[in-house]
Amino acid sequence: MVYLAEPEHLGDLLPNEPNYRADQLTEWLYRHPVLDASAMTNLPTSVRESIGPDLWPFHLAVDQVGDGGATRKWLFSCHDGSQIETVLMGYPSRTTLCISSQVGCAMGCTFCATGQFGFDRHLAAGEIVAQVAYANAYLASTPLPRSPERITNVVFMGMGEPLANYKHTRESIRRMIEVMGMSARSITVSTVGFVPGMRKLIEEPWPVNLAVSLHSTIPSERTRLVPINDRYPIDDVVDAAFEYYAAKGRRVSLEWTLIAGANDSDEEAIGLARIARKIHAHVNVIALNPTPLSTDRPPDRDHVRRFIATLAREGANVTLRDTRGQDIDAACGQLRLRNTRTQGKNPLSRSVSAQRTVELP
Ligand code: SAH
Ligand code: SF4
C-alpha cells in the first residue's frame, strides 16, 4: 500500500525501475493525486497495474452531500474493515478538510459520538495523509461549487485525539508540509488537552494552528464532560496552550461545545473569557449536536446569543461557528454510527439528528 510507505522510501516498492520513477510516483501521490492509478500517465503500464489495487489504504463506503453541494461527508472503509470519517467543506476563499486521526477515541467525552464508542486503533500516518490526497484527487475532477479546487486548510477535527497518536499525526503533518507543499498555517491540530502531546508539538519546527477543546472552566464539570481532565487538569492544559502561543507566535483557539444546563452559565462565560484574555486565545463556540447515547441538548438560540455576548463583554475574542452539514450527520462519529446501525450491528433504535456547527479555518 503506497501511502503506508514513507515518501522517501517509495523506491523500495519499485525495485526493478530506475530511480526517477520514485520521484514520479511521489508527484502522483502527493502533489497531483489521481483517484485511479491508470491516470499516472508517465509511469509504465506494469507499474500502474501493480499500484492500482493498492493505491488507497481505504475505499469510499458512503458519500453524502449537504449544504447544496458545499459540504461532502465521506465514510471510508480501511483494509481491516475499520471505518473513518472525513468532511469536505467549501467556502468562497477556502476548501477545508476535516480529517480523522484514530478509529474511535479513548478519551470518552460524554457528548461526542466518537467517544461514546470507544477506541479501536490508531491510524497510520499514510491513512491520515491519504484523506487529504484523496480529497485533492476528488476535487481535481469534481470541484465544490465556488470554492478552491484544492484543499487549502486541514483540521484534525474528525474522529480521534490526534495528540494521543503522536507519531503518526506528526508524520502526516510532515508529509503535508514537506511533501505536499502545504503551509503549516493552513493546518489545525485540535486536542482535548492531551498535555504530553501539546508539549511535543511545541518542539516541532512547524507553526501549525492549535485548537484546544476546553468545554468547561470548572474542574468537576470539565471532568464530567471530558474525563481525561482527571489526568491532565485544566490548569496544565491552559499552561501548555500558553507555552504553545509563546513558542510559535500563533494564537491558540479554545473550542467550546455549548450544552444546555452544563457549561452555558454566565459563570462559565466569565471564566472562559478570563482564560482567553490571559493566554491571548480566540474562542470558538459550537452549539452541541445531540448524539443518541446522551440526553445532553444544545441551549436555545437566545441562550447561545447571551453566552456569546457575555464572552464579548468580558473581553474575549469569540466566533460562533456557522452551521454546516445539518442534513448529513456531520458531527464526528455520527455517520459511522448510522452506517453501523443500518448494517444491523448497532443496538441503538433512536434516529440520529445531525446539526453540527462548523465554520472551520
Ligand atoms: N479529539 C480532538 C479532535 C476531534 S473532536 C478534540 O476533542 O479536540 C473535534 C471537535 O468536535 C472538538 O472540539 C469536540 O469537542 C467537538 N465535538 C465532538 N462532538 C461534538 C458534538 N456532538 N457536538 C458539537 N461538537 C462536538
Ligand atoms: Fe475524542 Fe475529541 Fe470526541 Fe473527546 S471530543 S471523545 S477527545 S474525538
Walk me through this protein's architecture:
The chain has 361 residues and is an alpha/beta fold. It has 2 domains: 1-55, DNA polymerase, domain 1, CATH 1.10.150; 59-345, Aldolase class I (TIM Barrel, Alpha-Beta Barrel). 34% of the residues lie in helices and 18% in strands. It contains 11 helices and 12 strands. The chain has helices at residues 20-31, 45-51, 113-116, 125-141, 166-179, 195-203, 219-225, 234-248, 266-279, 301-313, 334-342; strands at residues 58-66, 71-78, 83-90, 95-98, 102-104, 119-122, 153-156, 187-191, 209-213, 253-258, 282-287, 317-320. The strands form 2 sheets. It has a 10-stranded mixed sheet, sandwiched between helices. It has a two-stranded antiparallel ribbon with strand order 5-6. The radius of gyration is 20 Å and the shape is globular. The two termini are 31 Å apart. Residues 342-358 have low confidence and may be disordered. The structure holds S-adenosyl-L-homocysteine and iron/sulfur cluster (SF4). Iron/sulfur cluster is lined by residues 105, 107-109, 112, 114-115, 160-161, 192, 213, 332.
